[in-house]
Amino acid sequence: MDVAQNRHAVMGGGTLLYLAAGVPPGHIWPLAVTGVVVGAMLTTFTLWLTVRASQAIAVVVGIIGILFGVLVGGTAMQQTLWPLIPYSWANYLDLHRMSVTLPASLVATVLFTIGITHATRKAAENS
Asked: What DSSP designation does 94 have?
């Protein structure tokens, strides 16, 4: 199986998974794109925080972020607080919010990646 066939198999499997979970077909692409981009941002943030501070601090910040994300994303507070809690951004699939969260997530991912590289080099020089 070549790379293109493998990619189509994975995408088809992901689509079937979303459909089996009851996600309407029109929401599959926004859900997938938002999940990947926001997930990349949160992953690079956690890695940057681990390198800059410690693994324990990164875990605590992640847990608190998830709790706030669930609290804000699942209640009426999302109407006003959603821009402040990136852990809830993958929940917002309307184009207005996606036009804010996707570019912000991409920029943050790039900045955190640069920060990871800088912090890793600095840590390597000090050891």
From this structure: S
For 10-28, write each residue's pLDDT tens digit.
Answer: 455 666 777 777 878 877 8
What is the pTM assigned to this prediction? 0.80
- Beta-strand ranges (E) seen in the chain are none
Farthest CA pair distance, the chain: 52
Q: Which two tokens stand for residue 111?
A: 């900045």
Distance in angstroms (rounded) separating the CA atoms of residues 93 and 27 = 8
Output the CA–CA distances (angstroms, integers) from residue 92 to 14, 43, 96, 103, in the order listed.
19, 19, 9, 14
Pairwise CA distance, residues 51 & 16, whole Å:
37
Both tokens of 47, joined, read 């890695």
